[in-house]
Amino acid sequence: MSVLEIKKYPDDVLKKKALPVEKIDKSLQKLIDDMIETMYDAPGIGLAAPQVGVSLRLIVVDVNLDDEDSEPVVLINPEITDTDGLIESEEGCLSVPECQITVKRAEKVTVKGLDRDGREVSIEADGLFARALQHEIDHLNGVLILDRISQLKRDLYRRKMVKMRSKAEA
Ligand code: NI
Questions:
Q1: What is the three-class DSSP state of 43?
Q2: 57-58-59 Cα angle (round to 5)
Q3: Which sign, positive or negative, has the C-alpha torsion 92, 139, 43, 167?
Q4: Catalytic sites, residue numbers
Q5: Dist. CA 35 → ligand 1 center (Å)
């Protein structure tokens, strides 16, 4: 397993709609393992394949980072099939550093997809887990938390990032 580079805004891969996974083979299993390791290394509670530069519909989530026995949830071609309620909460993103945004999302979701062995699964989630699933599925559609704020705030963030980068390169 290896830790992969996490693509940062405004990398083009983050804006693309990812393609469905068609073959669950060895190279996909390796990608899944690498994504899990990258998520724990960051550390983050979720990661979508486009964030490591692979435009495929694949996500990993683990909202119990502090629990050593917790198993990461792997979902291939995930789809939200049902939602309930609406709730606002602050969110960050590994691809959008130095940014916390209040995002309104469904309180509960049902997500269908395949597990890493290709078995169909349906997951009912609420709380942080529901939020993380929606955030990661947004990534598969080329949507970042920045797309959920006003143009003005987005421009401010872009300028802040340009400044930070030019400082880092100086
Ligand atoms: Ni993210």
A1: coil
A2: 130
A3: negative
A4: 136
A5: 13
Residue 74 belongs to a domain: yes
Identify the CATH number of the domain in which residue 36 sits.
3.90.45.10
**Tens-digit pLDDT string for the chain (170 aa):** 899 999 999 999 999 999 999 999 999 999 999 999 999 999 999 999 999 999 999 999 999 978 888 899 999 999 999 999 999 999 999 999 988 999 999 999 999 999 999 999 999 999 999 999 999 999 999 999 999 888 888 888 888 888 888 887 76
81: containing domain: 12-169
User: Residue 79 in 3-state DSSP?
Assistant: strand
Q: How far apart are the CA of 140 and the centre of ligand 1, in A? A: 10
- Beta bridge partners, 124, equal 110
Distance CA 88, CA 82 (A): 18
Answer whether 0.90 is exceeded by the pTM. Answer: yes
Q: How many distinct structural domains can be found in the chain?
A: 1
Is 5 within the bounds of a domain? no
Please give all residues whose CB falls under 5 A of ion ligand 1, grouped by chain where several chains appear.
93
The pair phi, psi for residue 52, each rounded to 5°, is -110, 20
